[in-house]
Write a structure and sequence with these properties.
alpha/beta; 14 strands; galactose metabolism; 7-stranded parallel beta sheet; Rossmann fold; 10 helices; single chain; UDP-galactose 4-epimerase, domain 1; UDP-glucose 4-epimerase; EC 5.1.3.2; 330 residues; binds nicotinamide-adenine-dinucleotide; binds uridine-5'-diphosphate-glucose
Length: 330
C-alpha cells in the first residue's frame, strides 16, 4: 500500500488519481487545511487527520501494511513563510520528522518527498541542476531543505531510502477536468491571472518590475501537474525496486517565462485582456528559477509533455467547469 500525505491537495490529488490508475492501493492522510475531500479519488482510503498527530500515525502504520510513503503534506507559500516562519518550521519540518520517526518505528523504509526549487535561493547559473548550491532565501525553502537534509541523515543512520523531488512551478489541471487547483486565497500566478480575467474586476498586481531579468519581472519554470504525477509514478517504481536510494531530482520544463510573458500567454489562450499594476517586490521571491531536468530524464526516463499554454488552457477549462472550485463539484 502507498500512503500519500497531503493527497487531498492540488498536486497530491493528481498523484493519487495516477496511482489508482496504475492499480496501486492508496491511503490518503490529509487534515483538509488547504485540500478538498472531493479531490480524492473514491478508490483511495481517506483518513482525515494531521501528520503531527502521533497517535493517528501509529494507528495508520499499525492497521495498514505501507510499502512506501509519498509525502506532500506541507505549507507551501513563499510569501506567507516570510511573515509566519514558525508555521513552516512546525508543519514542514517538525511534522515531517514525526512522520519519518513513525515510519522507521514501523520499518517503513521508503519515502518520496515533495521538495522545491526554492531550496536553491539566488541562482548563479541560467539553469539550476541538482549540484547548484542550496542557499534558500525564504523560510519555506529553508524548511524544505531541512527535510531533505534530515532524510539524508536518516538514510545514512537507519537505511531509509528516499527520493526528493524538487518541483518548479506546478500548474494545469487533470485531463478529466474533475480535479484542478483550488486554493483560498489563491496566490499562484496562473490561477491569479485567470481569476482576474474571469472576475473582470480588480487589477492584477505584478510584484516587482525591477529584477535583473529580460523584462524586469520574475522568471519561473512552469511544469504541468500531470507531468509531476508521472514523475512520482516513475520514482515510486524505482524506489520500490531498489534498496538504499538517496536521490534528489529536479522536475521542471527547462523553459523560463517572465511574469509578463505568462500574462501574454493567458491573454492569448482566453482572448481577453489583463489589466495590471506594478507593485513593489514580494519578500522572499528569487528573480529567476529555471530547471535543468537532465538527471531525472536520464535516470527515470521522465520528460515533460505539456507546454505553458496547455497548462493555462487546462486550468481555464477546469475553472469554467468549476466556477466555485470544489464547491461546484456535485
Ligand atoms: N504548487 C507548487 O508549485 C509546488 C512547487 C514545489 C513544491 N511543492 C510542494 O508540493 C506539495 C503539495 O503542494 P500543493 O501545491 O498541492 O499544495 P496544497 O496546499 O494544495 O496541498 C497540500 C495538502 O497537504 C495538506 N496538509 C498540510 N499540512 C498537513 C498536515 N499537517 N497534516 C495533514 N495534511 C496536511 C493540505 O490540507 C493539502 O491538502 C507541498 O509539499 C509543496 O511544498 C508545490
Ligand atoms: O498575483 C501575482 C502572483 C504572483 N506573482 C509573481 O509570480 C511569480 C510566481 O509566484 P507564485 O505563483 O506565487 O509562485 P512561487 O512564489 O514561485 O512559488 C510556487 O512555486 C515554488 C517553486 O518555484 C513552490 O515551491 C511554491 O510552493 C509555490 O508556491 C513571483 O515572482 C510572484 O511575485 C505576481 O506578480 N502576481
Amino acid at each position: 500500500m502507498i500512503l500519500v500525505t497531503g493527497g487531498a491537495g492540488y498536486i497530491g490529488s493528481h498523484i493519487v488519481k495516477e496511482l489508482i490508475l496504475k492499480k496501486y492501493q492508496v491511503i490518503v492522510i490529509d487534515n483538509l487545511s488547504t485540500g478538498h475531500k472531493e479531490a480524492i479519488d473514491k478508490e483511495a482510503t481517506f483518513i482525515e487527520g494531521d501528520i503531527g498527530d502521533n497517535q493517528l500515525l501509529e494507528d495508520v502504520f499499525t492497521r495498514f501494511h505501507v510499502d512506501a510513503v509519498i509525502h506532500l503534506a506541507a505549507l507551501c507559500y513563499v510569501h506567507e513563510s516570510v511573515i509566519h516562519p514558525e508555521k513552516y518550521y512546525e508543519n514542514n519540518v517538525a511534522n515531517s520528522l514525526q512522520l519519518v520517526k513513525c515510519m522507521l518505528k514501523h520499518n517503513v523504509l521508503k519515502i518520496i518527498a515533495s521538495s522545491t526549487c526554492a531550496t536553491y535561493g539566488l541562482p548563479t547559473t541560467s539553469v539550476l541542476d541538482e549540484k547548484h548550491p542550496t542557499h534558500p532565501i525564504n523560510p519555506y525553502g529553508r524548511s524544505k531543505l531541512m527535510v531533505e537534509q534530515m532524510l539524508a541523515d536518516f538514510s545514512r543512520a537507519h537505511g531509509l531510502s528516499y527520493i526528493s523531488l524538487r518541483y518548479f512551478n506546478v500548474s494545469g489541471a487533470h485531463p478529466s477536468r474533475e480535479i484542478g487547483e483550488d486554493h483560498t486565497p489563491e496566490t499562484h500566478l496562473i490561477p491569479s491571472i485567470l481569476n482576474h480575467i474571469a472576475e473582470g474586476s480588480k487589477e492584477l498586481k505584478i510584484y516587482g518590475s525591477d529584477y535583473p531579468t529580460k523584462d524586469g519581472t520574475c522568471v519561473r519554470d512552469f511544469i504541468d501537474v500531470n507531468d509531476i504525477a508521472d514523475a512520482h509514478i516513475r520514482a515510486l517504481d524505482s524506489i520500490l525496486n531498489t534498496s538504499n536510494q538517496q536521490e534528489v531530482y529536479n522536475i521542471g520544463s527547462e523553459r523560463g517565462y517572465s511574469v509578463l510573458e505568462v500574462i501574454k500567454a493567458c491573454e492569448k489562450v482566453t482572448g481577453q485582456k489583463v489589466h495590471y499594476t506594478s507593485q513593489p517586490r514580494r519578500a522572499g521571491d528569487p528573480p529567476h528559477l529555471v530547471a535543468s531536468s537532465t538527471k531525472i530524464q536520464s535516470s527515470l526516463g521522465w520528460k515533460p509533455h505539456h507546454q505553458l499554454e496547455d497548462m493555462i488552457s487546462s486550468h481555464w477549462e477546469w475553472m469554467k467547469r468549476h466556477p466555485d472550485g470544489y464547491q461546484s463539484t456535485p
